[in-house]
């Protein structure tokens, strides 16, 4: 296996640090528009494993499908890992198909709404542009594994495991993400900093969240009929997260799991709720009211720039905040329904990352590390043949046990990152 990873930001840098410990690939090329950033990542991973010679750095323009295809051919890449933000999904996706490489990403193609109907179901939903090309990928006998980060990604693997091993009937697959992280600025006082791309946070959280319901789907006669939207920050609830994180208010957010899980899993309802916290919600609402969420360029002293890009640029880089971050983050799926024994069941399958541990072991803050480990596990499963397929597929299209076993198995055979199952006695408490 020859891997081309596009993007040497926080997630890409962490992915390389995780990958260097593994032996399933022959070449790992780190590509970024900033060649120096790619070189820094390669230098660090070589320091982590003396004698390492599989890693190389190159420059790439992820916005140009032809440039992506040319780099695939130049490097002989068999698999491309997209580690840049979702604005570049479709150009990298197209470059891979043109050059005959397999593709993996952690965030799918963006949704698009009609300007006059911003709160209705988007006419192009998350991932629609990729799934529209599924036939082309099948005919090329190549795999596009979409949404294989942590959420989407590990959350989808958990959902598949719940269906196969724990539940006879599922009422709701509810992805729930929460943390007790705190960021301290240079002066030592608590400050605001996003744990991952602020550009993406704005996109996800200010778009109307999408929900899927089986009853609507059956009445409408198609999978698509089951999707509908709610206002941003809808249905707040207090969810009690494990391993000391505790209760966190979670709200509905537009996210890929809702668009992926109904394609392969049988549930009556699919949702995604994120523990944003009151401060983040207040900031997002303010950005919206000021028009600073816009991606349309404006002219400032003769320079064209999008307001959202300005917001992202003035905030701390998520890749660099690890030393000032404390706490844990948790990703998982709350599954309700009937267990295999025919009795009611309410179960949370989860994975926790502790910033102290990820900084100590990888020099990566916990949110980017927790995202980065999952595509590397998936690449190893593809290399060994434990996972295989062609076309455009989500994580839930594959058996969950090989992934979860490899993730949790002690090093050096596995990745040494445990996951858990918690029985939830009562439904999460609604807010208000």
Name its key features:
35% helix, 25% strand, 432 residues, 10-stranded mixed sheet, alpha/beta, 7-stranded parallel sheet
Q: Could you report the average pLDDT, rounded to the nearest whole number?
A: 94
| Helix share, percent | 25-40%
Structural class: alpha/beta
Shape: globular
Major sheet description: 10 strands, mixed
Rg from Cα = 21 Å
Return residue spans where pLDDT drops below 50 for at least 5 consecutive residues.
Answer: none
Content of β-strand: 25-35%
> How many separate helices?
15
The strand count comes to 22
Distance between the termini: 52 Å
Descriptive overview:
With about 425 residues, the protein is of the alpha/beta class. Helices cover about 35% and strands about 25% of the residues. It has helices spanning about 10-20, 35-50, 65-75, 90-100, 130, 135-140, 155-165, 200-205, 215-220, 255-265, 280-290, 305-315, 355-360, 365-385, 400-410, and strands at about 1-5, 25-30, 55-60, 80, 100-105, 145, 165-180, 180-185, 190, 210-215, 225-230, 235-240, 245-250, 270-275, 300, 305, 325, 330-340, 345-355, 390-395, 420-425, 430. Strands 7, 10, 11, 12, 13, 14, 18, 19, 21 and 22 form a ten-stranded mixed β-sheet that branches. Strands 3-2-1-4-5-6-20 form a seven-stranded parallel β-sheet, with helices on both faces. It is globular and about 55 Å long. It starts with a strand and ends with a strand. The mean pLDDT is about 95. This is Saccharopine dehydrogenase C-terminal domain-containing protein. InterPro entries: NAD(P)-bd_dom_sf, Sacchrp_dh-like_C, Sacchrp_dh_NADP-bd.
